[in-house]
Structure of GTP cyclohydrolase II:
Amino acid sequence: MHPHMDDASDTALLELLTAPSPSPTKQTKFSRRDAALDPLMIAAAAASGPHVTRNHYHHDFFPGVMLPQHEGSWDWSKWSPEDSKPRRHLTYVSRQAPRSQHLQPEGTLPLAAKENDCSRDAAPPSPTLSKKRRPSLVASPDSEHKSRAKSTNVSAPAKPVEVKCMARTRIPTPHGPAFLHLYHNNRDTKEHLAIVIDPAQFSDASVSPSVVSAPPIRSQSLDAVWDENETEMDRIIRGAYVGRLSATSRQASTPAPQSPSSIPLAATTTDGNIPSPLVRIHSECFTGETVGSMRCDCGEQLDEALRLISQPIPVPSLSSLQPPGASTIPGRGAVIYLRQEGRGIGLLSKLRAYNLQDLGHDTVTANLLLGHQADERGYEIAAAILRDLSLDQGVRLLTNNPDKVEALTKEGMSVVERVPMVPRSWKSRNPNLQLAGSIAEDEKERLAGATLIGGNSVHGPDLDKYLRTKVLRMGHMLPLWMEDPEQ
Ligand SMILES: Nc1nc2c(ncn2[C@@H]2O[C@H](COP(=O)(O)OP(=O)(O)OP(=O)(O)O)[C@@H](O)[C@H]2O)c(=O)[nH]1
């Protein structure tokens, strides 16, 4: 019972709720069943909250009891014995999946089984599914093997993935300007993003035709005409414009196939000498990117990817007018930012996994103990976004993860090169890596102690352990470096 109620009111409330109904029509020989509520059930509910017993785990006896606005909720602290009329009927709500779903063989269940997932097409996530994935406390090597296999082989519904860029805008970053693209898709309800680095698009159309530049990285779905009633300003506001907006900008872009002249002429020139754009497929990490967590290198990787992509690209013999080897074009490429927090298991599970890690498990085993796979990510949406940006034919992929290369290749992407991402904390501590590394001088002046955008290198025991696990247990393609404890 509610802690603020005295014994007398407790008894009165129990009496009221469990007394046999006065209606003679409802009288049966099982008098206890006549009570509006089963006293045992009430006692169990009071003792253990909405999830009454193990068997009632997925039934919510007081739906939304903490939310006064929720239909069926009742604030028991406001009840008094005199206040017994009119009596509020409690609604009994089952949160269990329908029996038909229980009986489906495993593997035929809808995709949206992850707590952080909510597919547009699939049924809402069912607690029954997560119950099936309750932790087995023994992580067998076999299950780990399956996990790795699965990470590149997410069972896909029949519909091909479609993406649409809903908006694009300029974002100034410590590494230079970027265009942030926000995507919707027909596979999940997440807002996946593409951070496009292509500062050449800011040059006006009067670029000298003698200067060769790469084709602009633009979203086809954004530049498309969505609706014949769409005004120029509608299009501009959603980001379908060329160059840089100003207070006087009034002209939107037009879809490239109908009007190639909408794109600066020089930019449409391709040159076989221009290296393929650098691309990173990055998975969301709230802890690493927003809180600055030093449990992982995600924040640093995002920053490093933007930095690397923004570097000017040397182009051999750009034109006969220029001395060989002396030419560069502005850095170009994209970070595809996927909302697959915690390698797809969601933030809630990731936080639990961290506690398991503090109990001595590594990042892989912690996932397995929670009934998840080591990696539950998929890359179909990333591939669709790359296609929309016309970046599917020839990219240099920034990753150490062989699964990503394999998954993207499977999706039809052409990965012409894998560019490794060496952890900054290794580079800053290892003199050999420092020589080979690419940390610029000016980076030393950046804020130290954070792994956020524009941050510098940090290290700590959690991060060291995480990086080791990625190499030793997840097969990341990185020569392992460990600090010599003797030094
Ligand atoms: N489940 C889980 N996820 C984590 C943990 N630490 C980081 N992550 C998530 O891992 C994702 C990044 O994956 P990583 O394995 O670090 O790297 P990767 O993207 O596979 O590989 P690279 O391309 O080489 O960076 C982000 O979604 C993070 O939220 C952890 O301890 N447990």
